TrEMBL record:
It comes from the Bacteria. It comes from Nocardia colli. InterPro entries: HAD-like_sf, HAD-SF_hydro_IA, HAD_sf. One of its GO terms (molecular function) is hydrolase activity. This is HAD-IA family hydrolase. Keywords: Hydrolase. The lineage of its organism: Bacteria, Bacillati, Actinomycetota, Actinomycetes, Mycobacteriales. Pfam families: Hydrolase.
Amino acid sequence: MTIEAVLFDYSGTLFRLEEKDWWGDQLVTADGRAFDVHEKAELLRRMTAPVEQLVQFGAEGQYAWDNRDLDPKLHRHAYLEVLRRSGVPTDDQAEFLYRRMIDSLAWTPYPDVEEVLTLLAGQGIQVAVVSNIAFDIRPAFVSRNWDRYVDAFALSFEIGAIKPDPRIFAATLDKLGVEPAAALMVGDSAEADGGATALGCRFALVDPLPTEQRPTGLLDALREHGLSRGE
């Protein structure tokens, strides 16, 4: 069946939270030493891993973690605890980093996002962004005038379901009016994003590398499913 819609994950697929100058400016250990590059990279990994739990919680923290993408308050609770348990020594520092995390304008798009969006628009293929997330990512698209290419945003805290739960994919396809067999899901997690296959969608896995190391990952994923310029 011809592909009529492409569903994209957000974090690690279309955008990535990367090390910027601001990331470490105020970040020091309890003894005053600046976090080194490896420690900052590990913090980023812990804040953006799609499904993996990388710290241990008490009962309240575990509940917040398990439900973080359904409720902004639980999301904040969970990630502030992740940061503190990962060596960020003060609440102020943790709060600073968390605020940066939930600012979609601080995220970096992959180099081929605009080309992919215009390619699909030119072929009349609908686009949706399907994300396990508890903050609004639309500003990242609006600021670049990319929202005009996105037919639906399906965010877990608005839908009330978390990938790989089929309900979030089903709700997205309902918004688009597309059958599962005519949809392709693109994401960086076989476990979470690959849940779309339970409904009969196709799936393409991309590697959540730093943006400069993955210049054509999205284009390559589409090409593997017969979507490219001139086709």
